[in-house]
Amino acid sequence: MEYRGAGQAAGRVEHLAAGPHYFSLIDGVRGLAAFAVLLFHYVHFFMAGPTHAQLRGAVWLFPGSDWLWPIYIHGQLAVQVFWLISGFVFAQVYCGSSATSRSFAINRFARLYPLHLLTLLVVAGLQAVMLLRFGYTAFYGHYDLWNFVKQLFLASDWLHGNGSYSFNGPIWSVSVEVVVYVLFWLSRGAIVRFGLPLVAALVLGSYFADRQWEDITRVFDCGFYFFIGCGLNLVQRGRWGRGALLALPVLLFAAAGIWGAAIHDDWSRRFLMIPGLFGALFLLLALAEPHAPRALRRICEWLGENTYGLYLWHVPIQLVLLLILLPATNPAQIAQHGWFLALFLGLAVIAARASYVWFERPARDFLRHRLHSRLGRLKGSDNAP
Fold first, then answer.
1. CA-wise closest residue to 115 among 374, 354, 376
2. How large is the angle between the packed helices 24-40 and 274-288, nearest 10 degrees?
3. Cα–Cα dist 324/320, whole Å
4. What are the C-alpha distances in Å from 254 to residues 199, 244, 273?
5. pTM of the predicted model as reported, rounded to 2 decimal places
6. Does residue 112 have a pLDDT over 70?
C-alpha cells in the first residue's frame, strides 16, 4: 500500500507571531484535514497481516462508506492542504520580519522535534512487541537501525519516493517539509523584494522538478504547494486582496479547482483541484476572519492546536488496538462497525489533546526559552518569533 502521512503545517507559534493577522479559520481547516488523514489510514485495520496487503474492496466495508468513501479513498490529499497552509502562514509571519536564521531554526526544532522523538520511540517499542509476538511488523516494513537513525534526524524521506515508509509513517511529510523550510528561508529576502513573479517561478520550478524526480524525492511536491501558499498570502496582503478585487483571484483559483475535479484523474486532483479549491477557500477565509464569531474562532484554534498530535499519535493508537485484538479477534471484522471507528477517532482526539497540553506545549516553550537564552548569552539577544 502507498502509505501517506500528514505533513505538519505551521504551528500556533507562527500563527501567534502573526499578531492580529492570525487566521484561526484556516487553522480550523488544518484540523479538519487531519481527520481526513485518520480516515484514509483506517485501512490499516484491514491490512494487519505480514504482507501488509489490504483486502480487495475493503473501503466498502468501512463504517459509513456510502458517504465517507471520498475521504477513505482520497484522504491522502489532505497532506497537500497542510503544505498549502504552511506556505501561507510562513509567508505571513516571516516575509518582512526581523527573525534571524537561528530564531527560525529554534522555533521549528522546538515545535516539531519533541513529539516526533516521543512517538518514534513509542512506535519502535510497539513494533518490537509486534515482531516478538507475531514475527512481523504492522502496516509497513523497513524496521531496521538505518531507518531509525534517519528518522532521528527527520531525514527519513528526503530521498525516498512513494512506498518506503518506516516506523511512524506520517512523519514522511514533515521530513520533506523540513527541506522546503530551508528553501523558503534562503529565498525569503528575494520573495519580499520581487513578490509574486518570483513565487510563481518557485512554484513552476518545483512542479517541473517534481515531475522529473518524483520517484526519488517528494521534496519538490511539497515545494509546489508550499510556494502556492506563499503566493496566496502575498495576494491576500496586496492590492488584489482588498474589496471587490479579491473576486478575480478567488474565481481563477475556484475555476481551476472545479476543472480539476471534473477531469478527475490523479494529475488534475493534485495540481488543479487541491490548490484551486483550497486556494480560493483560504482567500475567502482570510477575508472572513475579522467577522467570524469568537466561538467559531476558538473552535478552529482548538482544532489547530491538536493537529500535530492527531498526525503522530494515530498510528501508535492503531498499533495498540492491534496488539489488544490479535490474535483472538480479526481486526478487519471488528473495524467494520461504526462504534470501532468512533473509538479510534475518540482515542486519537484524547491523545492529541493530552499531548498538546501536557507535552508538546511545555516541551516547545522549554526548548524555545532554553535555546534562545543560551544562544542569546553567546551571540546577543533575539526577540524574533
1. 354
2. 150
3. 6
4. 20, 16, 8
5. 0.89
6. yes
